[in-house]
Amino acid sequence: MTNTWAPYSFHYTIHPEAQSVKLVFTNVNYNGRGTARFGFDNAQICFPNDMTPALFPIPTVGNTGVAPASDILSWTNPAPLKNPNDIIRCDVWFRESATPLADPNLVASQPGVSKIVVNEPVNSVDLSSKGITLLQDHYYYWKVDVIDPNNGGTPIVIDGFTWSFKTGDAPPVANAGLDQYVWLSMDDGTPVDGKVTFTLTGDYTDDQKSPVTTLWALDEIQTQTDPATQVLIANPDQKVTPVTIDGTGWFFFHFTATDAAGSSMDTVNVGVYVDACAAAMADPSDIPAAYPNGYGDLNGDCQINMNDFVIMAATWLDCLSAKLGCIP
User: For the domain 173-283, what is the CATH code?
Assistant: First the structure.
């Protein structure tokens, strides 16, 4: 370990009989003042005098696919050193570069470095509010210095790490749509064939820097149904596709969007029920929302009518339990 920047690499061959692999590494860059303690399967970073700097930046360190439209930088501030009611304040430094910096550690005196937040109690900054627009394929460096009020004493400034990211082709963000509640006898064109056909509608947001492909797939592990149930996805490589199922159950469909930068996946759940009443009772936005506890639907047929009134009349003034001090 050194206090200078240098590339490191290693090669590791996973044994063919290995049951699991755990890789732990860390970068200690606290201006040469951080120490690292390593164990067999863990790593711990310690800071002098418990002066923990700001951590967990978003965008993450080294991310090379940040969309230029991104506006927010965020981080996690440490707890106050002495008084938990103290308010942590921050200075945020920022620099843009068309090429990677030879020394990525930000220093106030460096050309191009600006302080975009001055002594503010924040854990994020909106770049657009500072007049900053990210440029495509550029490198960005930033750091957060934490100012601890020291319980009313002399404020303590805790130097932050320098974080960096690069704008570029970001993976698409998949959206599988809302959960659905359908039933075998619903009017899908063939309401009496013992099957139901419905539509999966996926979508994605993307920076359009490279072509996007999509794929629908059934998660057979999470899906809860009879093993004999057949599921047919008509056009799995299309955003919108019909699906036909011939049995009841709870089905998990994954929608994946992929481009040259990577992929993302979203999941939609589809409940298939025997009839419309069962589907309506299961849908939290339907009967459970409009009629909590079923209200007057005493026989559970999703209708409140004379049949329910007969049940109510027949049991009027009945004692339901001796625990209430009456005779059932």
Answer: 2.60.40.10
CB atoms within 10 A of CB 75: 23
For the domain with range 51-167, which CATH number is right: 2.60.40.10, 2.40.160.50, 1.25.40.530, 2.40.30.30? Answer: 2.60.40.10
Expressed in percent and rounded to 5, the helix, strand and coil fractions of the chain are 10, 35, 55
Please give the Cα distance from 278 to 247 (Å, whole number). Answer: 14
In sequence order, the β-bridge partners of residue 264 are 257
Distance separating alpha carbons of residues 175 and 164, to the nearest angstrom? 28
Does the predicted model carry a pTM greater than 0.85?
Answer: no
CA dist., res. 230 & res. 245, Å (int): 6
The pLDDT of residue 327 is 85
| pLDDT category of residue 192 using cuts at 50, 70 and 90 | confident
Is the four-CA dihedral 246, 248, 249, 254 of positive or negative sign? positive
| Beta strands, E only, 219-248 | 224-225, 231-233, 240-245
Tell which wins on pLDDT, 268 or 62.
268
Sheet containing 72-76: order of strands:
55-58, 72-76, 124-126
Q: What CA–CA distance (Å, rounded) separates 70 from 75?
A: 15
Q: What are phi and psi of 282, to 5 degrees?
A: -80, -25
Average pLDDT over residues 206-221: 93
pLDDT of residue 39: 47
d(CA 132, CA 71): 8
Q: What is residue 36's three-state secondary structure? A: strand
Distance CA 198, CA 186 (A): 10
Q: Which of 64-73, 74-83, 197-206, 261-270 has the lowest mean pLDDT?
A: 64-73
pLDDT over 70, % of the chain: 85
Q: Is the Cβ–Cβ distance between 29 and 161 less than 8 Å?
A: yes
Torsion of CA 96, 97, 103, 108, to 10 degrees: -40
Cβ(162)–Cβ(149) below 8 Å: no
